[in-house]
Amino acid sequence: MPDFWITKTLNEMSHDEWESLCDGCAQCCLVKLEDEDSNKVYLTNIACKLLDLETCRCGDYENRLKAVPACMNLKSDLSEMVEYLPTTCAYRLLHEGKPLQSWHPLLSNSLDSVVDAGFSASEFAVSEEAIHPDQIEQHIIETLSND
Known about the structure:
Elements: H1 4-7, H2 15-20, E1 30-34, E2 41-47, E3 51-52, E4 57-58, H3 64-67, H4 74-81, H5 90-95, H6 105-108, H7 113-116, E5 126-127, E6 140-145
Parallel strand pairs: 2-5
Antiparallel strand pairs: 1-2, 2-6, 3-4
């Protein structure tokens, strides 16, 4: 039987299948800034306060949406948020009708493959708690949107 991500749409996936698509890169857990004048969205290397930088997993996944109002709820808002996800993200790739990256844990059978491929935020992110609010703009690493 073919793998579920090939045979099912994102909406058809079970909760466990959906969750297994997360490769653990944690790039969606990086703080984004929006310029109110231009509507441009910028990605920083600052990790959400809930992100465990060693494991690249949320420290309070079940309550993240209440604890961090800006947290991305991909299950309900994927179409609106897809452009803010890395181009390597499984949710974005499948949404766009593309295959998973060869290093994705579902294909490699290794959780370390994301780190080995150089796509883990643990390699470059800094904790939100270590950044003074006046320094946030110094941590911009990419422009995500020109809307």
